[in-house]
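Human:
If only I could read backbone structure tokens as easily as an amino acid sequence. I am handing you a single protein, as its sequence and its fold in token form. I hope you can help me see how the letters and the tokens relate. Thank you; the sequence and its tokens follow:
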Amino acid sequence: MERIDKILSNLGYGTRKDLKKIVKNGMVQVNGITIKDSAMKVDPEKDKIVINGEEIFYREFIYLMMNKPAGVISATFDNKDETVIDLLEVEHQVFEPFPVGRLDKDTVGLLLLTNDGDLNHRLISPKWKVDKVYFAKINEKVTEEDIEKFKHGIALDDGYRCKEAILEIQKASEEGSEIVLTIQEGKFHQVKRMFEAVGKKVTYLKRIEFGTLPLDEDLEEGEYRELTEEEIAILKGF
């Protein structure tokens, strides 16, 4: 059981003060009865709640897929830069979601956002071995030797040795290469640092898959949508 004003506030219908007035003005009904007490406790899963003629559907968690654009940081707040939360509509911001892991400022592609802390932990913990798949452009020719080095674990500049990574070459020439890389970690600038360790530079980076969820190709950079029930079930299966 939760207070009606808390439920409606969480859904973006106003502050507790706003909702006290709304309820007092007879604009809220619970199970067909107009209520006058904004502190009234209800069961959001069972009770029918109507505000200003509109039935509301309460949920505790929210799950979003975003095609993150370049120049936006994977954070909930920043004094200087635009964040991925700034790209959300207010109706989704009120759930206070946070990025699952992070993408670098200049990296684009699939970013999940949720307020489900347990799921977030499972998806970013190396213990659960969740694949993160990236498409990248490299400034030089990527070789079979690089594939073997990535397979056996790249040592980063700070001495950390990465776990096995699957490197696939799509195109390769002396002018540059296009690759797909699958990792199960999320160290700071990891993909870029892995290629720096073999003397090469990432010039473009896009995450195209998280777990077994591919980036929705219909999402333009900066756009997002809620996950389907099936997609949520897939993520919770890890």
The chain has a mean pLDDT of 95.
